[in-house]
Specification:
alpha/beta, seven-stranded mixed sheet, 218 residues, 9 strands, 5 helices, 17% strand, single chain
């Protein structure tokens, strides 16, 4: 876990995208974290089990374990200050069941959409019969990720996002036609073949998060 910003005041727990989008956007989200800290807003950037620098193999990760990990971070931080969540892309699958002060989302997508993206990427190397997979199947290889059946089945079933119980805000890029509270100019870094960064967009998003957190606190 990376930690940024002051020891006092509210804290924002940042939830990265999953799988390849995690790798493509981690530097970008870390830039947002540093910009938030410069604006006086504390934040933490954890790695989920089986993602990032976690020692757990990806094929052992489950949606339940990810949600439990987010809950643990929230409970640890809530002992001393109010907690907000900022989720990116499929990180939104992990923010809807939590009792937090608020939830900010960037371009949220469902687990079903994540799985479809991975399957499209994998299909380039040859068609596979995804419907033939079952509980006894070996971990499936999708775009370089070994995904066990429990996680595969959970992603496939996650066709709708849970509306957060707390105040929430949805942010998208101008190129995204879906509904949002506000849209910003910028390229979707999660679609690039290699990791990238956009300091201008990171600054805009950090300012939006900071302003929104302060409005919730007032």
């Amino acid at each position: 876990m990376l930690r940024f910003g002051p020891e006092s005041g509210p804290v924002v727990v940042m939830l990265l995208p999953l799988f390849e989008e995690h790798n493509r956007t981690r530097s970008f989200v870390a830039t947002i974290c540093r910009a938030l800290a410069d604006l006086g807003v504390a934040n933490v950037l954890p790695d989920l089990p089986g993602q990032g620098e976690s020692l757990m193999p990806t094929d052992q990760a489950t949606l339940e374990a990810w949600r439990d990990a987010v809950t643990s971070v929230i409970e640890a931080e809530r002992n001393r200050r109010r907690v907000y969540l900022a989720s990116f892309r499929a990180g939104a699958m992990l923010d809807g069941n939590e009792d937090t002060a608020g939830v900010w989302r960037l371009s949220p997508i469902t687990g079903h959409a994540v799985l479809a993206d991975l399957q499209r990427a994998e299909a380039v190397s040859g068609k596979q019969d995804w419907d033939a997979l079952g509980p006894e199947s070996a971990p499936v290889q999708l775009a370089g990720n070994a995904i066990g059946w429990p996680l595969y089945a959970a992603l496939r079933a996650e066709a709708a996002l849970i509306d957060p119980q707390s105040p929430h805000r949805t942010v998208r890029l101008e190129s995204d036609p879906a509904a949002a509270d506000i849209k910003f100019p910028g390229a979707p870094l999660w679609r690039r073949a290699e990791p990238g960064n956009d300091t201008a967009l990171a600054g805009l998003l950090a300012s939006d998060i900071a302003d929104w957190v302060r409005s919730c606190e007032s």
